[in-house]
Amino acid sequence: MRIHRYVSLTAAEGPGQRFCLWVQGCPHHCPGCFNPETWATDGGVEIAPEEMLEKILAVRDRIEGITLLGGEPFEQPGELAWLCEQVQKAGLGVLAFTGYTLETLKARCDPATDRLLRQVDLLLDGPYIQARQDFSRPWIGSSNQRFLYLTDRYRPEEIAACQNRLEVRLGKDGVIQINGIAPPHVLEALVAKLTEPEKK
Ligand code: SF4
User: Which pTM does this prediction carry?
Assistant: First the structure.
């Protein structure tokens, strides 16, 4: 499978602490997308699903579940279905974002897509539409996007109570990574603060 990056522990991409996986490759090209570097299908890195599972299970006692986002997870449904089956067997939840609607995914009549959908507890569907920007709900940025509870693992009132947040990580190589969601002006102010020259 081809991925963009992952974070082993985050509280900004779904309920509770989660392992978060950004897959590589997205055909939607939504104007205003926060992750355009995930669009290219030849970007990112290849990783075996078995290796990704090892990374998830290494933190299984510290997470409630995993979150798949992108990129477009449903461009790689076969590998992700297998991964999510193992994750579910370990008792962990699965939250997935997709730029497709659920109806479009079902209309594919594709066994791999259906297999992945069967492993998803909470699906956040639909593309990001800049003209309908709305950050009032957790983790999503436009009002067309839906929270679809495909199992009873999560409850709408529990999800609605979650807050949007940003996380900043400074790598050993000095690279700063930000994840989570916030209105563009908040994100821009944060990036400006993080990159402003140090005052002597
Ligand atoms: S579906 Fe998500 S990753 Fe893909 S272009 Fe739209 S916002 Fe960006």
Answer: 0.92
